[in-house]
Amino acid sequence: MNQIDVTGLVKRFGGFTAVAGLDLAVTPGQVHGFLGPNGAGKSTTIRTLLGLYRADAGSVSVLGADPARNAAAINRRLSYIAGDVAFWPNLTGAEVLDALAGLRGARRPGVEAELIERFGFDPGKKVRAYSKGNRQKLALIAAFAAPTELLILDEPTSGLDPLMERVFGSLVAQAAADGRGVLLSSHILAEVDRLCDYVTIIKDGRQVESAPLDALRHLSATTIRVGGARIPDVIDDVAALGLTPSAPESGSDGIGWDVPRADVPRVLGILAAHGVMDVTCAPASLEELFLRHYRTQAP
Length: 299
Hints:
CATH class of the largest domain: Alpha Beta
CATH topology of the largest domain: Rossmann fold
Largest sheet: 6 strands, mixed
Structural class: alpha/beta
Number of strands: 12
CATH architecture of the largest domain: 3-Layer(aba) Sandwich
Order of helices and strands: EEEHEHEHHHEHEHEEHEHEHEH
Helix content: 25-40%
Distance between the termini: 46 Å
Oligomer: single chain
């Protein structure tokens, strides 16, 4: 059973439609990237999953229940990190963890202690004394230590340094291995590219891509670049396949092509036949897949 199952979600605010017929599914053990720029409908969708908004149309199921009717019961079984973390300023970090565990009615103190150590977090300070990064650490400790089945994470690494981002990545991988579903909304495309196995991209409240990340890459062009001076014969032979060179990278005198997957062996064969040695071949990055839908078209 899907832990998140959304079909045809519509959410309106007056005459403005924030989400327009969105489908979204997250399965146990899946790390699902949820992408879109500001205003695309991500936060509205997440708030609907949490029961903070009611859908105007469509169906929404989280952990087998309707969040509009069963928000309290559902939220005890999931961990949520908001995009802008805020806690009680006069409590210490330890007291915040006590309060959150009390609200949930369940706790894993041994896991909490382990995560406090891994994040290098001082739970004895008051929240008002924490930096943004330390408030984020507190949210992550609370979320991953809780005995929950599902994690909904909205910009979870904001304010973290690269070392702590690596700790976060290992926790996401372990959560998935334990069968916990993860919905990860992030503007850091490299993070989603590294951690997620499934991606949904939305635009103007509508889904424009939703598939395993590897499948999206296979459907997209592979970038092949050749270092060094440009070789006219190579350009001509590759052009015979209907491929034109892409814009050169800044400061490079090499050349490259965006090559459909089916043509990659032929292009590499041409390069080998001409004795070209400095060759890089890379699948489409998540950034390229994302920008394909958001790149402004020239008039």
